[in-house]
TrEMBL record:
Major place of residence: membrane
Family the UniProt entry places it in: Belongs to the ABC-4 integral membrane protein family.
Bilayer-spanning residue ranges: 21-42, 282-300, 331-355, 375-397, 442-465, 660-680, 712-732, 744-769
Membrane topology: Multi-pass membrane protein
Domain MacB-like periplasmic core: 446-589
Descriptive protein name: FtsX-like permease family protein
Record localization: Cell membrane
Highest classification ranks of the organism: Bacteria, Bacillati, Actinomycetota, Actinomycetes, Propionibacteriales
Keywords attached to this entry: Cell membrane, Membrane, Transmembrane, Transmembrane helix
Superkingdom field: Bacteria
ABC3 transporter permease C-terminal domain segment(s): 665-772
A Pfam family reported for this protein in Swiss-Prot or TrEMBL: MacB_PCD
GO CC term (a single one): plasma membrane
Length: 790
């Protein structure tokens, strides 16, 4: 295209923009908001994945974790090398602490770990006995900075650095628990300080190891460790030594209790949770991107088609004078593509600004700080994909519109639309007129429905997340009727503590529809349990009653089968009932059935330990529930959780949803207004001849407005009524994927208030557009009809 032709094209497009600037500006807003949310979520999700990868690489994340009740000897470590794996110590000790005036539980690690080392965001690793590195979420929750002081088991330590540990992306004290950084802190100290803390709290020191595979598989290493012979003299816990002796006396495997945990990194929910969330966010965002782009592309395509219809006389004249179709195509593509490029650039800039505030992931997980900047791929996608989609759609629409005879272009045609396969003579005039209008502009109506569906889908996502968490918290306060929950390493079978209610808890891995890190705790409770509404009387060894949370989490119902594994053995259980317990994912059975899932050495050794002390053993248990704290020997306790701690972790996750809910809701509302405004105005503009004809027949502006604009009220109402249940069905599956890593099952719910808000926003958007577009019908002159007469 030569210089004068290019200048002429620019001038004509500028005149076209000025005459319809409001509609083009609305499209620009739609692109900016839609792409801003998309780029922001993609940037946040990719930053999470980069941070996790950086932590795993810099910290030397081990291939898996092993925890033993008795430290492994140098010879046993060397034997693992011969098998094809390197096992390296990563011990920790849980001690009381105090940070910023708040009592905490501190899990202290050594700064000289060879694998799964801490990475530093600010400051340095501790180098002196009075220094400590604090995990970043704990520091953020309590406002701690480098140079501040914390108390660890009575020792005042200065914070030398703030960072994270690669195998504690979810900084939870136990597997299957949520994170509560205000009460639980990960800290790294020097080897000398660690040894002092372990000596001060020997019963809380844990012999943990990280393994690195170089030839062996995880299953082969597990089998090897299960055959390890333990030395009771090395046990820190007196009950461990007694258990080993009891196992030997009963002729049980000498490995008991060698491993209390063997967990490959790919199955570790502390690691996989953030990755799962980030990837789910990316998938949802990509689908949203496609929907937004298709919507915008078709709107712009309709704009171009509308311009061609209005400019048909000019096009026909130019065609008759020899102007090529490619030249006309370039002209009609220039303005849509220019608006698309500008909107994409503005959306990318907006997304870059939003990304650091979308911390539903970064605020809940702990990983090294990385720049929250859109990558080159995201920028290219944010600009290139809209441009490509809009270009393809517009080329198709424009070519179709231009493929008309020159004579037809020179003389504007008034089309009546497609013929209706219905006879409407007996209908009242107003319903008949509106139905005809709907059928004749069916494509535009479907486009409005698609736009409203996208907006409702986003609003259902945002409002539903918040309502689901609020409902879960309210229900959890009722469901969790106990105050304390203990799991025991070595129960005292001489009796059940006063005020306690015993159970048998067996954590197992879900083999189907679970993926890495998905577990279910099989809980053996008596039929008359006061804390769980599960009817377990008469259950067979391969039958379970699932809690409602577990049924939702794994999409199971009565009659289905669930496959579980302890790492060595697999079981298939038939679901015979669903208990109305929504707080935690449990599979309920009788205590005897649950005990049969344990290593037989465990209950036998526990019973021999009790009878050796002169007591008469009661039925085996390894979990206790109570209404108040129990006075238990700390050496026997494996974990201790309170009702408040369980609720606090979920409340933290709920609080992090606030920003993303607000962002999604407000952006959806703006997109809804823009979509209705743009499309209704465009359809009305195409009906100028009919509107003018009605006015010539004596209809007032108010009557014309009712005939042409009130139709869209019913379209909006019908679209919302259809979109809400469909969107709930879609987002229920998305939400299940987003929360699959949590130790709870939270159904996706939409409250009556949420539905009222969405209906109100949709009707409010229509009301705004109705007022604005009523000016379009009033501005059509009666003489407009004469333009189309001979």
């Amino acid at each position: 295209m030569n210089g004068p032709a290019l200048l002429l094209t620019l001038r004509r497009n500028w005149r076209s923009f000025r005459t319809t600037w409001a509609r083009w500006s609305a499209i620009l807003v739609l692109l900016t908001i839609g792409l801003g949310v998309v780029v922001g979520l993609l940037t946040s999700a990719t930053a999470t994945l980069r941070g996790i990868d950086e932590g795993a690489r810099s910290g030397g994340l081990a291939d898996g974790t092993v925890i033993t009740e008795v430290p492994l000897t140098p010879g046993q470590l060397a034997d693992a090398e011969a098998v094809g794996a390197t096992i390296l110590p990563t011990p920790y000790v849980d001690v009381p602490g105090r940070s910023a005036g708040e009592d905490t539980t501190v899990r202290a690690f050594r700064s000289d770990q060879a694998v799964s080392r801490a990475t530093v965001d600010a400051g340095t690793l501790p180098t002196g006995p009075d220094q400590v590195l604090v995990e970043k979420l704990h520091a953020a929750a309590l406002g701690l900075r480098v140079g501040d002081q914390v108390t660890v088991s009575g020792r005042v330590l200065r914070i030398s650095g703030v960072g994270s540990l690669p195998d504690y992306t979810l900084a939870s004290p136990q597997l299957g628990q949520t994170s509560d950084p205000e009460r639980f802190a990960l800290m790294v100290v020097t080897p000398a300080t660690f040894e002092a803390l372990a000596a001060q709290h020997p019963d809380q020191a844990v012999s943990a190891y990280g393994y690195v595979l170089h030839g062996a598989s995880a299953d082969k290493l597990r089998e090897h460790l299960q055959r390890v012979t333990l030395d009771p003299a090395l046990a820190h816990n007196s009950y461990v030594a007694r258990a080993v002796a009891a196992a030997r006396g009963a002729g049980l495997p000498l490995s008991y209790p060698a491993m209390s945990l063997f967990l490959p990194a790919d199955d570790n929910p502390r690691i996989t949770g953030a990755i799962s969330d980030a990837r789910t966010t990316m998938n949802v965002t990509l689908v949203t991107t496609i929907l937004v782009m298709v919507l915008v592309a078709y709107v712009l395509g309709e704009f171009s088609r509308d311009r061609i219809l209005r400019d048909s006389v000019v096009i026909g004249t130019q065609s008759a004078l020899g102007t090529s179709e490619s030249a006309l195509l370039r002209y009609y593509l220039a303005l849509p593509l220019a608006v698309t490029v500008l909107g994409s650039l503005l959306g990318t800039v907006l997304g870059r600004g939003l990304a650091p505030n979308l911390d539903i992931i970064t605020g809940y997980y702990s990983f090294p700080a990385v720049p929250v900047e859109p990558s080159a791929l995201i920028v290219a996608t944010g600009i290139g994909v809209p441009l490509a989609v809009v270009a393809l759609v517009n080329v198709f629409v424009v070519r179709t519109a231009l493929h008309r005879p020159t004579q037809e272009l020179l003389r504007p045609q008034v089309t009546a639309g497609p013929s209706l396969p219905l006879r409407l003579e007996r209908m009242p005039f107003v319903p008949m007129f509106r139905l005809r209008q709907a059928m004749r502009t069916l494509g535009s109506y479907l486009l409005i429905v698609a736009g409203l569906f996208l907006c409702i889908l986003l609003m259902v996502f945002g409002l539903g997340m918040r309502s689901s968490m609020d409902t879960y918290l309210a229900r959890a306060e009722t469901d969790i009727s106990f105050h304390d929950y203990y799991t025991l390493r070595f129960p005292d079978l001489s009796g059940v503590p006063a005020g306690a209610h015993q159970a048998v808890a067996v954590p197992l891995q879900v083999l189907q529809d679970g993926g890495p890190g998905k577990t279910l705790t099989v809980l053996g409770v008596p039929p008359d349990s006061r804390y769980f509404p599960a009817d377990v009387a008469g259950l067979g060894p391969n039958q379970l009653v699932l809690s409602r949370a577990a049924a939702h989490k794994y999409r199971l119902g009565v009659g289905d089968t669930i496959a579980l594994s302890d790492g060595s053995l697999n079981w298939a259980f038939r679901i015979v009932g669903i208990a109305d317990y929504t707080t935690s994912a449990f599979g309920f059975t009788t205590p005897a059935n649950a005990q049969s899932l344990l290593d037989p050495a465990i209950p036998v050794a526990s019973e021999r330990m009790t009878t050796a002390a002169g007591g008469k053993a009661v039925p085996y248990y390894n979990a206790l529930f109570s209404d108040h704290p129990l006075d238990l020997d700390p050496d026997r306790v494996l974990t201790h959780s309170t009702r408040d701690e369980m609720l606090a972790g979920v409340a933290k996750f709920n609080a992090l949803l606030t920003r993303i809910v607000a962002l999604v809701t407000w952006s959806s509302m703006l997109i809804m207004v823009v979509v209705l405004y743009v499309l209704i105005r465009m359809v009305v503009a195409r009906q100028r001849y009919s509107i003018s004809l009605l006015k010539a027949l004596g209809y007032t502006d108010r009557e014309v407005g009712r005939l042409y604009l009130d139709n869209y009220l019913w379209l909006v109402v019908g679209s919302v009524a259809l979109a809400i249940p469909v969107s709930v069905g879609i987002m229920s599956q998305v939400w299940r994927l987003m929360t699959a890593h949590l130790p709870i099952g939270i159904p996706f719910l939409l409250s009556v208030r949420d539905v009222a808000v969405m209906v109100g926003l949709a009707l409010g958007a229509y009301a705004v557009v109705r007022v604005v577009t009523s000016h379009d019908t009033r501005s059509v002159p009666v003489t407009e009809v004469l333009k189309f007469r001979e």
